[in-house]
TrEMBL record, chain A:
Keywords: Molybdenum cofactor biosynthesis. The keyword Membrane does not apply. It comes from the Bacteria. GO terms for molecular function: molybdopterin synthase activity. Transmembrane segments: none annotated. Pathway: Cofactor biosynthesis; molybdopterin biosynthesis. NCBIfam families: PRK10678.1. Belongs to the MoaE family. This is Molybdopterin synthase catalytic subunit. Heterotetramer of 2 MoaD subunits and 2 MoaE subunits. Also stable as homodimer. The enzyme changes between these two forms during catalysis. InterPro entries: MoaE_sf, Mopterin_biosynth_MoaE. The gene is moaE. It comes from Thalassotalea marina.
UniProtKB/TrEMBL annotation, chain B:
It comes from Thalassotalea marina. This is Molybdopterin synthase sulfur carrier subunit. GO terms for cellular component: molybdopterin adenylyltransferase complex. GO terms for biological process: Mo-molybdopterin cofactor biosynthetic process. Pathway: Cofactor biosynthesis; molybdopterin biosynthesis. The keyword DNA-binding does not apply. It holds the Pfam family ThiS. InterPro entries: Beta-grasp_dom_sf (IPR012675), MoaD_arc-typ (IPR010038), MOCS2A (IPR044672), Mopterin_synth/thiamin_S_b (IPR016155), ThiS/MoaD-like (IPR003749). GO terms for molecular function: nucleotide binding. Gene3D superfamilies: 3.10.20.30.
Amino acid sequence: MTNDNIVIKVQQQDFDLGAEMNKLHQNNVDDGATATFCGRVRNNNLEQDVIGLYLEHYPQMTEKQLLQIAQQAKSKWHLGRVCIIHRIGMLNVGEQIVFVGVTSKHRQSAFMACEFIMDFLKVKATFWKKEVHANGQKLWLDAKQSDQNKANSW
Amino acid sequence: MINVLFFASLREQLGSEKLELSSDGITDVQSLLSALTKLHPNYNNAFNQSILVAVNQEMSTREQTLKPGDEVAFFPPVTGG
């Protein structure tokens, strides 16, 4: 989904951080700042050894919500390009889950918009994580109040 | 007809990811829930207050009115990112 310098991708396959940075910069000399965030699968959560994550989503609704979040960020700050990529399916420890990249003329807007997008993605976008533990147990994760509080703080 | 979708832990708990229900007598999300639990008594405990609802892919409430052809999705709070 590409719209008004906004790129939204929900996909199973991995993404290349360098390539995504290059796309944010290609033919874009208006902006001097690029802020990015990448979230990866870590090997531990709540004192459990984690070996993987299964990511489920609500097709179409998720993409619409991510687009809305990107548009909100663009209405709050003067931004150039916004890219949000989120993976779905089975992911192993160390794999990339999510990428947010934002460009703007100066760093402040890019930093803030990047954080804003992640904070709202966490509480609004229809993704669900199921953790796979080293002992074979599988567990749907609960939403965290701290994530809601962080989004509410904007 | 109303198209009903379930996601994540709710989908697993119900053992169903989607179903179609006649829209007869269904006026809002709450009445859809009543119809669902009448059809499937084992659904009764699944729809606790933490379960969220989206109507036509927009976040919604149990008071939202429904019309034939609507897509209604139920799911737990989201945990992406």
